[in-house]
Write a structure and sequence with these properties.
Order of helices and strands: EEEEEEHHEEEEHHEEEEEEH
CATH class: Alpha Beta
Strand content: 35-45%
Shape: globular
Oligomer: single chain
Number of strands: 16
Length: 257
């Protein structure tokens, strides 16, 4: 399963997603195997983020590439399609998805409308063949909807506790609430982006665990010098967060369609 979510805060968008994929077990509340380094949010252009849930496959990765390719095409005036207004971009993305061979894919989309310098969010549910649904406040895909409510309630509590002063503070509060979900199919190591007036930035975030020696070990998701998501433990890289389906399948010992 997956949990990918976003919240709109004072016109900016905070976008987070867990990084776990699983091979299900026949035993309830257990998994046969898991992979904790999977990217589920993609920066397809400098002003568009797309989060995915459900079908994590080669077809989906090809779909992401196709969306990126199509949005980077130009019209007869030389304007890139990604620079069009948010309604056009959302519809174009949904049309690309609906015309693809991916038959079970939900999307969250965050779009920075460059023409008006405003941010917009949309949800697209492939299985229902819906048009993009504009999100006014919060949006989630994946996992049980009851967890979505838990995250929002805990986000409000975190805001009250942390008294955030800027969008980074709000993002950290959102991540704090994200990590409150306790389900074997998702993990507590999300990646996070913020979309604001000046573009898209990544938010490094960490979780502390008590080791066998009694010391605190810090697990952090961050960006390396090449712009790649990595996971560090006590400031040492232990792995890259990837979308290579072959590598993921090999680790899981299964094969996604």
């Amino acid at each position: 399963m997956t949990i990918v979510g976003l919240t709109i805060q004072d016109g900016d968008i905070i976008f987070a997603g867990d990084t776990r994929l699983i091979n299900p077990s026949k035993i309830p509340n257990e998994v046969a195997s898991r992979f904790d380094f999977a990217i589920k949010i993609f920066k397809v252009t400098d002003n568009i983020l797309i989060g995915i849930a459900d079908d994590y496959s080669k077809k989906t990765m090809e779909l992401i590439k196709k969306i990126k390719k199509e949005l980077n095409k130009t019209d007869i005036k030389g304007d890139f399609y990604w620079s069009y207004n948010h309604n056009f971009v959302a519809r174009k993305i949904s049309n690309i998805v609906k015309s693809s061979s991916v038959t079970s894919q939900d999307l969250l989309m965050a779009i920075h409308d460059m023409r008006y310098n405003k941010r917009y969010a949309y949800k697209f549910l492939q299985i229902l063949n819906h048009e993009p649904h504009k999100i006014e406040e919060n949006g989630f895909i994946g996992l049980n909807p009851e967890y979505h409510d838990v995250i929002i309630k805990n986000y409000q509590k975190a805001i009250e506790k942390n008294n955030p002063h800027n969008i980074v503070d709000y993002a950290n509060s959102f991540l704090e609430s994200f990590k409150s979900v306790r389900d074997v199919t998702v993990n507590s190591f999300p990646i996070c982006y913020v979309m604001h007036d000046h573009g898209i930035m990544t938010i490094s975030n960490g979780t502390g665990f008590i080791g066998e020696n009694g010391n605190v070990n810090w697990v952090v998701n961050t960006i390396d010098e090449n712009g790649k998501w990595v996971r560090k433990v006590n400031n040492k890289i232990i792995g890259y967060i990837i979308s290579d389906v072959d590598v993921i399948n090999h680790s899981l010992g299964t094969s996604y369609k």
